[in-house]
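#onboarding

Welcome to the new folks! Below is a worked example of what a typical request in this channel looks like: someone posts a single protein sequence, and someone else replies with the predicted structure as tokens. Don't worry about understanding the tokens yet, we'll cover that in week two.

Example request:
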Amino acid sequence: MMILRSALRWLAPLLALAVASMAHAQTANTAQVDAQLAPAANCATFVKTDLRQLEYPTMLMSSEVVQESADLPAHCKVTGVIQPQVQFEIRLPLAWNGRYYQRGCGGFCGVISIDKCDHALARDFVVAANNMGHVGLPVKDPVWGNVPALREDYGPLSTHKLAVVAKAVAEKFYGKRPAFSYLEGCSTGGREGLGSAQHYPDDFDGIVAGDPAFPGRLGALANNWDARHLLRPDGTTVFTPEKKALLAGAVMTACDELDGLRDGIIMDPRRCSYDPVALQCRDGDGPGCLTAEQVMVAQALYEGPRDSQGRALMPGAGAPRGSELSWSGAGRLALAGGYLRYLAFAENPPKDWNWRDFDFDRDVSKVEAAAALYDPVAPYEAPDLGAFHAAGGKLLVYHGWADPGVSPFAMLDYYGQVVHREGGMDAVRDWFRVFMVPGMFHCRGGNAPNTFDMLTPIVNWVEKGVRPDGIRAEQRDEAGKLMRSRPLYAYPRYAEFTGGDPDKAESWAPAAPAGPVDDRDNDWVWAPKS
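Example response:
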């Protein structure tokens, strides 16, 4: 059967899709899902388990039983390290459902985000998370970046290492391998998802990737561009909170009803072309207008990074209109400054180097090698998910339409490249779907329905063949009271108001563009060459 499964990977995609789940379930020594499997090993002594035979040398550091709580089942908590410094935690429920869930990280990582696995552990998944190969904080300088091996792990390698080790740990603990494996994350975690699908297509059956952040493109180029405009050379901010609110209000007033409903949400910012010059003060500055500097900065952020010849340095465009309240110069600098100093170049710049010294003409070529190491897609290449598709994998991506830090336009370019390469939109939607979330900032936030369950849809897609569509998004107040709900439909479809209460999901129905959609942007500095 193992030979059969290997052979099937190289057959036509439709055949692979038809048999993948059946072959997976029939593999010898694979767990049965929802069987509530009991451990075959003792948790207290499991720390002594020898994992030296694994491809990546691994040492367990601790193992202990954690008793059942109001929210989580009893489980065995296992910690360890994979050579050289990938620290991880795995939680193995004492009544296992046969599935494995891995959580991605955020920013520069450096921490183990195991608590973000609670929703899967509560459903009796084995769950795991890691620090991506170094100790640090997600938005602090990545001072570990002068070590080549740690740079490699910050790419897709640490995610792969943990998948290999965690599955082996599960097999030793229960006597069975996971029947199905899932990866979920947002931002850096979303980038881990796309990187896994491209470079390690057999690691996960289902991947949920939210607002995928490409550090090479963002740290050196987009975040650097935004920080340079939002912050003056002396470190002061160009926009006060009041002026950001003024601009955001004007944009909303101009574009809110483009979808036929005034609800404080811009459904698709591509339809909004508001020019902030309409707000420019006649006499320098004032409470109800923008300074010339603020207008210039807003226009630069909307346009996105460019070199002195006007060439685009990112696909699509820059910050979407409707994202203004989430603009943060300090936030962009925290990522761009650290990336440029410790991760972007073959050799880190000298101590007196300043992030403003980066030249958008001369230095772009100098950061291409690092982008190829970290980003799921290297400069000048198009994404290639053919092996993931052939293996029967399912990929679910979501992205905030109002995300200013990780452009939704770049995500749609990525999807367009895959659609073009893999046989067209109808074919790709069978295994890869994108859900655009109107009004949502980066991974969360925004005055819009921005909370949703993606784990249930990906499990149902992988295991039952139920294609995800009409995913319910909710917005709740600080007390947890439901304010409004709305369906999310797989791109290029979108939600259209049909009448009734606009705050209820049932008042919306799927709609589709009138003609074919091609979101590829092949006119930017690192666009695919073929």
